[in-house]
Amino acid sequence: MKFNTGIEADKEGIRLGHFYGAHLRTELDAQAAGWTPYEIQSENYLTHAQNSQIKTIYLVSGNEEDAIRFRESAMEMGMQVATRDELLSEEGYEMDMQEMEVLSWDQKECVDYEVLLRARAMGGSHESTFAWNVALRRHVVDGQGVWVPVVDLGVERRDVEDEGEGGEVNEDDQSPNEEGNAEGEEDTPNEATSNTLQNSFQDSLSTIYGPGDEGMSIKVGMWP
Question: Which of 71, 86, 124, 154 is most buried when burial is the number of CB atoms within 10 A of its CB?
């Protein structure tokens, strides 16, 4: 195969050293909501992959233009980028491609979700509940099968309130479910200009980039 992802469909678990998983969330609805822009997301993920010494990136993105830009930047840094469609377009996967093409958008996202779970390292942006879900499910592996509490990895809610910053996620402030947006994915507060290489969450397997006080309700409520 052209891309050495090391994925075996019948096996679960992290594929050590094989590929980096990048969730590039820059579709039109994300742009309209003021989420972290392409320039910052791409820098975060490419730097993370490079520092992790991983040469292959599995890219999840519904923005074709930004996917092309991301690929070009990765090539300049000596890395290659693979997507779901590219992998299934390889010889011998014709039937799999046909089955995938009839899936709904959300079902296709489930395919990406399963692949990202197996990445050696993974990066996402703090506004995306999809990225958070992947990272926190992988966190069980980071704890060797035991759930390690994550609320102490960011700023505690009471500390944020004392400082007069941040605030709870506004559940009514959701982006429209346009094509390219995973069903039910919520909009969380954004401070795009301060997201470069800052971490809302980080363990040995995944990083969610954004202000340190973001995602508190997700950290304590999504898993386990």
Answer: 124
206-209 β-sheet, strand order:
80-82, 56-60, 20-23, 121-125, 206-209, 199-202
Helix, strand, coil percentages in the chain from 3-state DSSP, rounded to 5: 40, 10, 50
**How many Å is the Cα radius of gyration of the chain?**
17
For the whole model, what pTM was predicted?
A: 0.75
pLDDT, tens digit (0-9, with 9 covering 90-100), for 163-175: 333 333 333 333 3
Distance CA 14, CA 115 (A): 10
CA proximity to 130, closest of 18, 22, 11, 13:
22
150 Rama class: left (phi>0) / alpha (psi -120 to 50) / beta: alpha
- Crossing angle of helices 64-76 and 38-51, rounded to 10°: 40
Is the separation of the CB atoms in 180 and 28 below 8 Å? yes
CA 40 to chain CA centroid, Å, is 14
Distance CA 88, CA 94 (A): 7
Domain boundaries, the chain: 20-221
- Contact (CB, 8 A) for 42 and 67: no
Summarize pLDDT for 199-215 with one digit per residue, the tens. 999 999 999 999 988 88
Tell me yes or no: is domain 20-221 CATH 3.40.50: yes
